Amino acid sequence: MSEEEVTWTGERRNKDLRTFPSCSSFDLLDPHDPVLSRLATQMFKRTNDYLQGEIATGQEHYDLLEEINRTVIIKYADLQSLAVNITKSLNESNEKYETEVKPLLEQIEDIHIELSALEATAFRLDSYTKQLLGRFIELLGIDNHSA
Asked: With a threshold of 0.70, does the pTM exceed it?
């Protein structure tokens, strides 16, 4: 067969295929190149391996996300429980402060105010005592410098 005949036959075959869209270009009875068949088989096998790997990777990512989600849910529940306990403890502490500590602090403040007033009174009394002593010495005529 010459090149023209091969070209014409190929064009004719392509033309025939185009006229019958339901026809496939693969015919079981046609002899095929064994190298081409081997390469096609390898291509399909490798494509299958690649797609299986992609699916497996996607599944692994999905499983990992599920595990992360479960862990986050557990941690969130733990944190929520911790927050509830902290709130409860804080409320108890505030209640104890209001009922036990605050009255004591108010008593301490009252004692401090009374002590300050007592101290001021003691200073005034001391000053008054010194004045009285000075007058008493003056009335008795005792000279401090002669002794």
From this structure: no
